[in-house]
Write a structure and sequence with these properties.
By secondary structure, the chain is of the alpha+beta class. It is built from three helices and four strands; from the N terminus they run E-E-E-E-H-H-H. It has a four-stranded antiparallel β-sheet, covered by helices on one side.
Length: 107
């Protein structure tokens, strides 16, 4: 069984419950793991109480993630944030297939 955040189409957040591993237990995997780590977490051999507890933790994380930041309550600050884009350009034409020259690597 899979659960996915629907408020944001680009979200990679999910909560998955896999089939029973043995008896009344199953495995789960979810992303995000917590409010600090962007990694996923998994548990094997979970009973129904553990699945429910971890699912509620996951829902709380999703709600917290989607809260509007106090920093952006100002419309002007929000507009600046929306307009920001990071631009990077690789200057070496052969960057996709050749390493840096030895002297550049040591800088």
């Amino acid at each position: 069984m899979n659960f996915k955040e629907i408020d944001d189409d680009s979200s990679e957040f999910y909560f998955k419950i896999y089939s029973q591993t043995s008896g009344d237990t199953c495995s789960i995997n979810y992303l995000p793991y917590n409010d600090v780590s962007p990694k996923s977490s998994g548990y094997a051999g979970c009973n129904l109480d553990t699945v429910e507890k971890q699912f509620n933790v996951w829902i709380t994380l999703i709600k917290k993630y989607n809260e509007r930041s106090i920093v952006f309550e100002d419309n002007i600050t929000q507009k600046y944030y929306d307009d920001l884009e990071v631009y990077f350009k690789v200057m070496d034409e052969d960057a996709d297939y050749a390493p840096f020259k030895f002297k550049k690597q040591n800088l």
